[in-house]
Queue: 2 jobs
Job 1
Amino acid sequence: MMTPYLKRAWAEVSLPQLRKNIGIIRELNAPGTEIMAVVKADAYGHGYDRVCECLAGECGIKYFAVSNLDEAIAVRELCPDADILILGYTPPEYAHEISGNNIIQGVVSMEYAQALCKNSSEKVRCHIKIDTGMGRIGLRYDTPAECAAEIARICGVEGLSAEGIYTHFAVADSDDPDNVAYTDRQEKFITDTYDELVKLGIKLPHVHFMNSAATCYRNSARSTLSRAGIIIYGLHPDISLDIPEGLEPVMELKAVISQVKTVPAGTCISYGRTFTSEHEMRIATVTIGYADGYSRLLSSKGEILVRGKRCRIVGRVCMDQLMIDVSDVPEAVSGDIVTLIGRDGDEMITADELASVYGTIGYEVVCGISKRVPRIYVE
Ligand SMILES: *Cc1c(COP(=O)(O)O)cnc(C)c1O
């Protein structure tokens, strides 16, 4: 049957599972905490058009976070009424685009706040970022009182509209006591800073610090927003810790067997001759490769589901194709749909599992699925 997309390598994104994950995250949060859906990097590779439409529409999400201005403007077109926060850097000369699109910019210093306001005739909305231990961006001070004093000065910058303060945790995805204590200190610093600001007569609508890991493991009613990213898509902040029941992956990655061959012992498979068959084997060629974002680091390591059975990759993953051992699946034929990420029968391969095979995290696996792979949305 012809499909509106090429049935070669494609990603299926389940909108019902996305909605279900949002429902579970809402349950985790305190009544006063709203979800700020993190949809940077094309919604972690899931495609922001349909993801944002679903989140803003049926899910009723009002807050979104992105990494940059281009993403913010794209989300603005999809969600005319949402609050959209840019977590990362925008060159100050674009301040006019920030305010013109009613975007909220993360502000990391007094100088940056002033530069933004110099470049915009309209008010620039912002949340002020505090570095409490991530060591990435934000105001860094020894005490909450000093930090609050500087925030108060920034709030006074002409043309700036500060609506919140926030920070980012470095190890909220760890249950090691030392790491837990570290995160405790980060949380205490931001909430104390907020309280100091109140003492100075500044009561901002937002203070937020929860990411996915904190939302799962140390949910706090003090955070007015939970900046949930990876758990929206059903993956683990850290593979070694379970996530709440019902949060399941939203994306599956599929491809097709183009050819099946029986080869005798001594046959070399793929570039570099890294694999030679030791006995007769059935080898299937699959229509996906590293240009689709299926990492070459999975060469001779990864497994793929064929008719509900795990089949190992043999030899190197090529740019557009790879080979697998289907000796144990005699029914496998050309045209079979195979599952690289997702469930087939009783077996399931998650992006988190793939990531652990080649030493990365599920985040990188889903973000890395390339543009060439059409995203298909299933209801
Ligand atoms: C990416 C990001 C998040 C979301 O992180 P997850 O681990 O995916 O929940 C939250 N806050 C900031 C500042 C980020 O950069």
Note: The chain has two domains: 15-233, 251-349.
Job 2
Amino acid sequence: MIKNQSNSLSGQEIRQNIQRIRENIRAAALECGRDPQTITLMAVTKTVPPQAVNEAISCGVTLLGENRAQELLEKYDSYSLKREHIHFIGHLQTNKVRQIIDKVSMVESVDSLPLAAELDKHARRQQTMLDILLEVNIGGEATKSGIPPERCQEVVKRLEDFPNLRLRGLMTIPPREKNTVFFAKMQQLFVDITDKNRDNRAINILSMGMSSDYEDAVRYGATIVRIGTAMFGRRNY
Ligand SMILES: *Cc1c(COP(=O)(O)O)cnc(C)c1O
């Protein structure tokens, strides 16, 4: 059934989708007194062919989100945006760090101290600073990775041991149900962390909200929304 084919949208459809998403972000932001410019729209590229990703880039999308090391390696050279505009957002095994370290400017999915240590080591070898977000398992779900919210302050403190990592904020994938409750918890946690680390002005990113809930995420302070399906159509694995 053609209707169920994924990632086969035309350039024009992608363009229209992006326009609609932008309008929705803008409306949600204005509604709660936020400047729409402070919210970055990320295109989540898993399973999406590079031509479609480049179509989104030609519509002004400036940030890509990558889930898988292997897929990033295969597609990287075809993208019309490079490293500084690419974030890693998927679960990252320590043995894959080496493959992606020179192809992303931020890892949003740092979910353990061993992973942070490995990222720090490879960033140092590259003589670069790597931006990171801590992924928070805000719903305490067994099936999701991420740091339990009650451990975040402690982990933030421990990150000071890694000179080549720069903590920029928090990322989450909330439970499907009652996501606004969890967005609110994330917003509070973000405030707590920025309060306790006032000297660290770099902590200013809250990455949350996907195709089904990005407007709510904007209402709760998201500064990056990560959109796949609403931009590129349904994925076919
Ligand atoms: C796939 C994915 C998204 C985008 O999901 P959609 O519902 O397709 O918008 C966002 N964040 C992460 C971490 C993802 O893996």
Note: The longest strand covers residues 165-172.
